[in-house]
Structure formats: C-alpha cells, structure tokens
Amino acid sequence: MIEAYRRAEALHPSQEPRLVHRAAITPVWEDGSFSYQVSTPDGPSLVRIFPDKRERVEEGAPPAAEPVLPPELTGVQTSPDGRHAVSVEDGNLAVNGVRITHDGTEGHAYGLPSDQNRLPIVVAQAGMTTPPLLVWAPDGRRFVTLRVDQRHVPTLTLTQASPPGGGPRPLAHTLHYEMPGDPLPTFQQMIFDAETGDRVDIAIEPLTFTHDAPLGVGRVWWEDDETLWMLYGTRGYRAAVLYRIDARTGEATVVLREHSETVMYSAPTIVEAPLVSTRGDEVLWYSDRSGWGHLYRYAGGELKNAVTEGEWLVRDVLRVDWDAREVLFMSGGHGSNPYDRRLCRAGLDGGGVTVLTPEDGDHHVQVSPDGRRLVDTYATPGMPSVTVLRDADGAVVMELERADLSALEKAGWRAPERFTAKAADGVTDVHGLLFLPGDFDPSRRYPILDSVYNGPQIPRQLRTTLRGHSLDPWLLDPAAGAASLAALGLAVVVLDGRGTPYRGKAFQDASYGDPGVSVGLADHVAAITQLAAERPYLDLDRVGIAGHSGGGAATVRALLTHPELFDVGVASAGDHEHSGYYAIWSETYQGPPPQDYTADSLLPHAERLKGKLLILFGEMDDNCHPALSLRLVDALIRADADFEMLMVPNAAHGYMHAEAHVLRRQWDFLTRHLIGAEPPFGYRIDPTFGGAA
C-alpha cells in the first residue's frame, strides 16, 4: 500500500498548481489589448493579446509586484480611489483611523455581520480580522453599511482544552449562535460620508439577519450616487423583496416582492449573488416560478415580459446592456449534460435566446467591459480545457490556451468518467462522475467509495464559481480529493441526487421539508447499484461513503438507513442534528417556524449501526459545533455500538494544522476496512502536502 499512498499524496488537490498548466486565465482588459498570466512548468508567464490584429505576444515572467494584503488580513475596506480606509474598532466604524460612530458595542456593532455568518473563532485562529461590510457609492466618498443587533440571540460556548502557548487551564469561547426557532439577529443599514462622517439612516424597519447580510452577497448595489437598491430574503427565504432607496434621504420604497411555497431563489442557489439588475424604473428579475430559473423584465413595478423561458435555467448574468436592449448570460441545460454551461444572448424585450458557444462541454466566459470580446474556457471531464477569444457574436477569433495535463497524467491521474443513472423513483435521470485509479485494470474488482455532499445549496460534480472561487472537480477535486482517493485503489463516485441545485425547481424541491435532507441518499443507492450492474469491476460487496459537513451527516445517515449497501463510513464535521445547527440552514430548507426540526433525528436509531464508522470533528468548530458530533457519539455509546472517533484540538470546521494527520487517518481507515489491506506502517504525509516523508 505504500506506493498507493504515495500516488494518493501526489494527487492531493494542493498539488494542482504544480501539475496543471495553461488551464485557466483571468484577462486584464485595456484599450486595444488585454493581458493575462498563465501557469507553465517553468513558472508564471505573462501573455498580451491584440485582438484586432489577432496577435499574441509572450512577455515572459511577469514583473514582481508588491504584495497586496486582502481585507481579511488588514481588517480594512479601502475606497476605490484609495483615499478612505474604513475599519471596525470595538464595534465602531473608523475612517482613516478616526472614529465616526461611538455607540457600537459587543453584540450591537457597526459594519460586522452576525457571529454565525462571521465565524469569529475561525477568523481569529486563521490570523485574520473581519473587515467591515460596506459598498462604496460611485463617487468613492460615501458608503452603505449596517449595524447588527444580536444581543438577544442565545450563545454557544466552545471549550479550548489546549490553547496554543497557554497553560493547563482550558479557555472558554462564546459566540452568538441561533438555532432553528431562536430569535434571529436583526440589522439596519445606513449611509456614511467618509469625509465628513455625516450619516443617513435607511428608513427600513430592523430586518432579520438570515443566511447572509445583503451587503455580503451582492444584494445591495448603487445605481448612481443618489439611488441605492437592496434585495432582501425573508426568514426562511420564502420571499424576496426589492427596495429602492433614496441615498440623500434614506427613504425606501418596495418595488417588487415575490413569494414561494418553498425557497424563493434570486439565483440558482442562495449562496450566489442574485441575478437581479436595475436601471431607472426597469428591473431584470430572476425567478423559478415556471419551474425553471428564468429572467423577467419589469417596469414601474409591473411585469412586461419574460426574457428567457424553457426547460433549462439561467446560471449567471454576465452583462446587461440596457441601451442595446440585450443581456448576456450563462445557461444550464443547452448541452448534452444538464450541468454544462453555455453562453447565451437574449433581448430584454423578448424575442428569443441565441446560444453563442456551440461546443458541447462546460463553458466559463469572461466578458470585456465594452462587451465586444469574450474569453471562453470550455472543457469536458475527458477533454483538457481550451481557452479561446470570441467576438460579441460568439465567433472564435483565436485560440489562447490549451491545458497541459502531462504532469498530472504522469503523476497517475485518470480523467473521471461521466455517467447517467435513474434515481430511486426509476424515472428521473441523475448524473455523476466515476473516478478510477490511474492503473485501472478492468479484470480486477474495486471497492466503491461514495464521496458525498447532498446539501441543497452546492453541487458536487460540476465546474462552477461560487463567490469568486472556482471549483473544478474534474481535475483534482478540491472539495474532497476524489482523484487522490481513487489512487488508493478505490472506485470513487461523485453524484448529485434529487434535492440539489441546477436541475430545475421540482428536482431541487425534492429535499424541501425533509428533516434529514436525506431524499438524495436513496438516489445514491440506486445509482451505485446500477453502476455496479453495468461494470463488473465494481465490487458491490465493498461500498463505503465519506463526506465533510453536510456530507459528514449524510455519511452517518447512509450507514444507519441503508446498511444493505454501505459498510464503511468516514463522517467529518457533520451537522448531525439539524435542530441544533444553524437556523439559516434548517429554516431555509426544512421550512420556517413552526416546524419540528427534531423529526427524523438519527440519535434514537444509533443501535442500527452495523458498519465501520469513523467520526471526525474539530474542537473549535463554530460552524458544525462539537456538540453535534458528541451527541451522536453519546447515542452510539448508549447503544453500545462500535465506532472510532477523532476530535482535533484547536481545529475549526477545517483541520488547519492537523490536515495531514486527519487525512492520513482517513486513508488508514478506508484502507483497513474498505480495501481490506493494512496501511503502510509509519507513513506520514508531508504537512505541506509536498510529498511523502
């Protein structure tokens, strides 16, 4: 097994920058040209493109640049012109070091989100400082921010048994943590003049702080120096309310409101910025009222027309040209796979949709500020990405880059295979990826590992960008390292069952009101069973499951409710009891109060455990707090069940300093109980993930 461990370590997601080259670029647009940096085996290289001449100039290594610390490290938000630096000091706002508020207090601070949204313990342990939430006006002088009141919210206490540099006495850390049915934090918004400190309060009653502050996810924007917009999701996200605000007076008017019986989405998921745009009295509005997420045009608060329609959905809005009366957007469902994105154009006044990227595959498109140039990177799981320059109509002007995966393949990587199976209802198609070892031999039989995350807010198998972070599971799968796990000698399944996003409202709503968000697990069972029937090299007698956070909870649920299939599980940092987890989670996906969030709890059924289970969690996890795992542990002990547990001191929702140790313990557990071999004695993963030690 030592060679398998070395291959698995070589394919850890942290190795992607070393193994993957020319796969992605970010253009910097200038007049008449644009430049970008690209990774090469010899280091980063700077390329300049002159589109009109179709000319490419290799400029060599990029010049050394002064490092710019992000706001998360400085705790400061700087105005676009660099003149004003805003920070939070003891709950008060300061501009260029001078306080402009003086009544901020602990639990009622300016500029900061709620504790549950901020994760203050994680922030402190990572050496970061929370910067203020604000949005600058176009004049670069005024900004809108908020004040959150969480003084009435119940608290959660975490005990740090072994504080770094501390003595033998444990430390207690307390934060506000609202659980389902608890009173939620409230927030109010105000506008400040950074030069004078003058303040205008926005005339909206205190609103409950739900999943995220509107300021944190693009739900507040300036149309001009005098007009501000806010899109608010109510408690439980059953309604979306659009406010227009007079920035001079703070007067607010409700322009649009839409309600849903389940979740009222303003984008395909609630963790993405809303796909809503405004100009004057016109609003481009996103809704899945038809059963699919589409765009609608309103004027003066009245619906004028549907901009898009059909059995597919709008995934992202890239550019709205109000004067030309058209919108550029990414769609999902125009290709052979429903998760693949295509670039499309539609008229704001109706008239149909034009698909601008015909190649079958997933497209990631970046648009120049003037809308004349498109940089498109497209790929399939089995095809290295290609980046091309297109004109405004989608015609290819020139190829820019083609991914170099030679080092990745030399390290033992094998491209994942897409598959389609029937859900547990026998009708609905579900899609996934199958990762096999690089030395795959069809004459052998391989244990199956379900790398699970079945939460309703994030897909598991597709390339996407969430809040500026790219996720590409087709290479080294940064979310869970499926390629690395396959290198151990496993057939790893990555699947999105019913209840997950990007497949339309009926598909997503399958999980709504389900106390365990468990409906998708039946689809995992059905799909894995079908895969094994079609592929004799998959060993249905050895099936494991592993996941983190929501995937950790799904792992335990799978072992207890589907013991006929799952024999082995690794449950990491799970939200095992939704009644004790974030209110924003349970109330959004299981319904707002009143609701029985204890229904379908697994704790009374701990005696069902027959398979091998490893439970992992961090002592200082202020997301899925330790009690969620320890209450499960207590139930398992009372049932006299056999299991293993590892609590990592000082670790939060990620394992930080202990990542290498926790990873090796997972490999050992899967090797011993799923593969049926002995782990290599004394093997240590390099803490920097640079190679075997």
Task: Summarize it.
The protein is an alpha+beta fold and 693 residues long.
Written account of the structure:
- With 693 residues, the protein is an alpha+beta fold.
- Among the domains are: 2-16 and 414-675, Rossmann fold, CATH 3.40.50.1820; 21-66.
- It contains 13 helices and 42 strands.
- It has an eight-stranded mixed sheet, with helices on both faces.
- Strand 40 (568-572), helix 11 and strand 41 form a beta-alpha-beta unit.
- It is globular and about 70 Å long.
- It starts with a helix and ends in an 18-residue tail after the last helix.
- 48% of the residues are buried.
- Residues 483-674 form the Peptidase S9 prolyl oligopeptidase catalytic domain.
- Residues 67-384 form the Dipeptidylpeptidase IV N-terminal domain.
- InterPro entries: AB_hydrolase_fold, Peptidase_S9_cat, Peptidase_S9B_N, Serine_Prot_S9B/DPPIV.
- This is DPP IV N-terminal domain-containing protein.
Please tag this protein with its features.
693 residues, alpha+beta, Rossmann fold, globular
CATH topology (level 3) name of the domain at 2-16 and 414-675: Rossmann fold
Radius of gyration: 26 Å
- Strand order, biggest sheet? 33-34-38-35-39-40-41-42
The geometry reads as globular
Total number of strands? 42
Would you tell me the overall average pLDDT? 94
**CATH homologous superfamily designation of the domain at 2-16 and 414-675:** Alpha/Beta hydrolase fold, catalytic domain
Percent of sequence in beta strands:
25-35%
Quaternary organisation:
single chain
Q: How many DSSP helices?
A: 13
Report on the biggest sheet.
8 strands, mixed
Percent helix range = 10-25%
Q: Determine and state the CATH class of the domain at 2-16 and 414-675.
A: Alpha Beta
Using the 3D structure, state the CATH architecture of the domain at 2-16 and 414-675.
3-Layer(aba) Sandwich
The span between the termini is 15 Å
- The class by helix and strand makeup works out as alpha+beta
The low-pLDDT segments are none
